[in-house]
Each structure stands twice: as structure tokens, then as C-alpha cells.
């Protein structure tokens, strides 16, 4: 009788230990990627929600929309380097990403560290030597999510391996100041994104 009780106790303890190891492993995998991409609760409320966030999606902070933490630059940007799928049941998912450097857009950090309370919002996708904020190659539902601010990203640990964009002021969206970025974007559409700054 004592052997049976002892055996059951040992089995229970072994099961608990195995569960603890599994939980720690699952938790480590859950935060393994440098970023976490999410859709808002409102956008994810429909049970049939399925959002494919393609590799190359750019997330950024912009001056005036975020209260920067101490020693945080006024604008940061990252680009996803893998495609992920968000659903009603899984509205957030970790993703690999690189930092984005654009002197034109004042994204200057090659290494982006986590900062409490700072999130980045989808602004477009890498195209040619810059960022395409129109995203005409994506379906309308995804563009609507991006333009409504429903897609965001937070930094889990340092994002690096920077992508350097060689865009000019003409590549920025027309903010009503009479600059038409279309001609410059079309001319640059066949240029690859630059992983290293060009020699001058």
C-alpha cells in the first residue's frame, strides 16, 4: 500500500516538473522574436478574422504621436522580415524584424531597444529604395487596417541588422504642400532595398 502511494506521489511530482519545463519552454518561444505584432481588439473581434501581415511591412513611431521615453529618439522604425498571420484567437504574434534607417524620414537608430510604453504603428511597406505608404499591391482590407492604425508592434529585445533606405524628400507622401511623390517612386521602383549605405 505504501509503495502504491509512493509511486503515485512520484508520478504526480514528475508530471508537475514536466509541465513546468514545458511551460517555461513555451514562454521562451512566445517571446523569442524581437518584436510582437498585434491587431486591435476591435479589428480582431470577428471570429472569422484572418490578417496576413507580409514580410516587408514597416512599423514606425512618428513625432507627436508617441510620448518618447527618456533617451528615446523621436522616431523609430522597423520592418518585418517574415510573414505572420493574426486571427481572432491569436491577435498578437512574435515576428523577426530589422531596424529601418531613413535620413529623409528621420529614422536614425540602427539598433532599437525595448522602451516601456513605446509602440510602433504600421505605416507602409518597403518598396524599391523607400516606403510605399499607399500599399496598392495589398488587398483593400489590409490597407484599411494599416491606415486606420489597427496594426501595431512592440519591441521585445534589441532589433538590429538595419535596412538603409536611400529615398529622398520627393519619396515622402504628399502632405498638401504640392510635392508629388509619384514620379520619384515610379523611377525608384526597380531599385533594391539597401542593407548597407552606398559609398559616397
Distance between the termini: 83 Å
- Given helix and strand content, the structural type is alpha+beta
Which runs of at least 5 residues are low in confidence (pLDDT < 50)? 11-30, 64-68, 177-200
What is the helix content?
10-25%
Report the mean per-residue pLDDT as an integer.
75
Q: Supply the number of helical segments.
A: 3
Global morphology: globular
Plain-language structure description:
- The chain has 3 helices and 11 strands, in the order αβββββββββαββα.
- By secondary structure, the chain is an alpha+beta fold.
- The strands form 2 sheets. Strands 1, 3, 4, 6, 7, 8, 9, 10 and 11 form a 9-stranded mixed β-sheet that branches. A two-stranded antiparallel ribbon has the order 2-5.
- Strand 8 and strand 9 form a beta hairpin.
- The termini are far apart.
Topology:
Elements: H1 2-30, E1 35-39, E2 50-53, E3 57-60, E4 77-80, E5 84-87, E6 92-95, E7 97-101, E8 120-127, E9 130-132, H2 140-147, E10 151-155, E11 163-164, H3 182-188
Parallel strand pairs: 7-11
Antiparallel strand pairs: 1-6, 1-10, 2-5, 3-4, 3-8, 4-7, 8-9, 8-10
Quick description:
With about 200 residues, the protein is α+β, with helices and mostly antiparallel strands. It has helices at about 1-30, 140-145, 180-190, and strands at about 35-40, 50-55, 55-60, 75-80, 85, 90-95, 95-100, 120-125, 130, 150-155, 165. About 20% of the residues lie in helices and about 25% in strands.
